Each structure stands twice: as C-alpha cells, then as structure tokens.
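Side project, low priority. Logging it here so it doesn't get lost.
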Amino acid sequence: MHALAGKCRGQLAHLPGLDLVPTEWLHITTQIIGFADEISTAEITAMTASAAKHLQVLSPVTVGLQRVLFHDEGVALGIHPPRALDAVRAGIRDAIAKEVAVHQLADEPDWTPHLSVAYSNSDGSATPIIEALTPRPGPCPLAVRDVQLVAQERVDHLYRWERIAAIPLGG
C-alpha cells in the first residue's frame, strides 16, 4: 500500500494544486463521528466498547486498492470489492448511534471507501492529473485488521490525528 501510494505521489508530484498525503497520514475514513469537544470521555469509552462487540465477530478483510478515483477534493484509490468494508462500517455506525448523543451519522448516508493520495487545494482541470496517472498504478492487496478511533484535524493542508483507540477485527 505504501509503495503504491508512493508511486501515485511520484506521478503527481510535479503538478500544482495538490497536497500529497505523506505515508504516515494514509487512511481510509470509515465514519466521521463528530466534533471532539461535543463527545464526552464516557461516550467515547462506551462507543469503543460497543464497536468492539460488533467487530469481534468479523474477520479481517482483504481488499484491493486499484481503481483511481478523481474527485474535486482530490485523488484516491478505490477499494475492490467496493462494499467489502460495509459490515465494518455498519458496526461502527451502530455503536455511534447507541452511545453518542451528538453525532454526524445523518450527514454521510453514502460512502465510497478509498485511500486518499492527494487533496486538491485549487480549482482546475482534471486532465493533467489523469494524464499524470497514465498508465494507472497496478492493484495492491490491503489487509484491514483493525479500526482506529482518532481525533483528527486539518493542519497545513493535511489531515493529522491522534489515535484514541484501536479495535481489532475478530477480537
């Protein structure tokens, strides 16, 4: 995964208007919960325990990173099969709904699981990006073994976070 993302970043590095995602900040966002100052420590503890109960019955999931996704917010690698992580997300969403009073579940009804490799920081044509990623990078397997709860913020055009908890799939 790191090599594939690095290859994509290398192909995009010469283009203006993109903030490349460094290896340490690569991630697949499963579910945004809400603002950290609106969620109590007790809710975080209860949500994490509830999510662990849901996720302990799921086995780790292997997906493929292969399809390049172009979006006005950036460039990403889509996972295949695209619905492979739906059960993981459903368990997390259920835990949030049960344990967190103020959440953003209604704000994200659709989900396209992806690994972002670059964020757009300006308007412009997608053509140079599409051309830079030709030929398309090859597929890469990715084993999803856990889910991490993080406190995230955007600093200097990059998402950065502090890990609060890690919940393994399959207990």
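Brief comment: The first helix runs from residue 2 to 12.
Revisit when time allows.
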